[in-house]
Amino acid sequence: MSTGSAYNDDKGGSSSLGEPEYGHDPASGGIFSSDYKRHDDLKEMLDSNKDSLKLEAMKRIVAMIARGKNASDLFPAVVKNVACKNIEVKKLVYVYLVRYAEEQQDLALLSISTFQRGLKDPNQLIRASALRVLSSIRVTIIVPIMMLAIKEAASDMSPYVRKTAAHAIPKLYSLDPEQKDQLIEVIEKLLADKTTLVAGSVVMAFEEVCPERIDLIHKNYRKLCNLLIDVEEWGQVVIINMLTRYARTQFLNPNQNESLLGESAEKAFYGSDEEEGKEDKEEAAVLVKRKPYVMDPDHRLLLRNTKPLLQSRNAAVVMAVAQLYFHLAPKAEVGVIAKALVRLMRSHSEVQFVVLQNVATMSIKRRGMFEPYLKSFYIRSTDPTQIKVLKGGTGDILEIAPGQVAGPKSDTWDHSVIQSSNWKGLDQLCTLQPG
């Protein structure tokens, strides 16, 4: 027998129960097959009395799911092992159930008592996983059970379980909106939580269930501002967006007097009647005599605690802070966001697209903010077409001369691409507002 055939016999032939079968295709991952017989082997392993075989089967099933393979036919065999005493097996079983509980609702309902026992498990990961599976079963008949589980989890000693409870709140609300009042009570309790792990999740639940209940934020505002720097990145995005909306309704506009003066001057300039012009001048004089604006300490706290996040590696966090500063910062301070946005311009084209849209709309109101960075908006021959169009529209707003060059000859305005779509793109950009 040749070496090649011997290798095939060793690696490609049928293997003993529980041993992975190595495929010939390197792209296959080499440890499983889509063959129905393979699933039969997995079912036998899951029915085995040996935890080692069950663990191996669950590892292979989870690997199948990770590769996008359908493993829903294994649900009956897997769900039986939710009561397994081996903690590693139980973790993987819950990973599987979270994925397929919504698809296999009838079978999941048969094991609901087991999930309820899982909520009392000493291991925090099992308690959280049991709640996650329970909230994935989209059947109204178990709404009271889900509500009780969420309330208990909201008081759990583990912040990870409390975080999972916050994630379960929007799921229950979408299943039965009549539970809103009870869910608001849970949200109010979780908003008082002082751990960074919970903060982002409960604010997300607040935004989805009761965004109009601004009163729930009042007593937690300072705590959220102080926790913000230590919250995980996507939680920061949710919290910053919520605080932006909150601050715009609770604090005075730091640029209000300036805006009123500008409006009065514009009315006086365009006024056709001398009497009206005189009245406008008198109003402007009154505004000038007003007491100078003094920023609220809580307003300043928000600006101070979000400013370091302009250095975040997450583009979504930077964009959220930029929009917050654009709407809430005094004119003299809003310029700090320009450098951060220009830094994002060096990122992927998808990020550039979003940044350019926001830069264009910001520049309509504060054109001088980006003047020190005009070279970053020059069109390059390597830019994708959509980026060239957006840069063209942004360049018109920033009043960049079409003939200007950013360095090499390739970094010039590409009229062949821009000419047909420039004004259309500019019109669209001007109608967009950041935030």
UniProtKB/TrEMBL annotation:
Record membrane topology: Peripheral membrane protein
SUPFAM superfamilies the UniProt entry points to: ARM repeat
A GO BP entry: intracellular protein transport
Keywords for this protein: Membrane, Protein transport, Transport
Domain Clathrin/coatomer adaptor adaptin-like N-terminal: 37-390
Cited PANTHER family: ADAPTOR COMPLEX SUBUNIT BETA FAMILY MEMBER
Family to which the UniProt record says this protein belongs: Belongs to the adaptor complexes large subunit family.
Protein name: Adaptor related protein complex 3 subunit beta 2
Organism, as annotated: Erpetoichthys calabaricus
Lineage: Eukaryota, Metazoa, Chordata, Craniata, Vertebrata
Gene: AP3B2
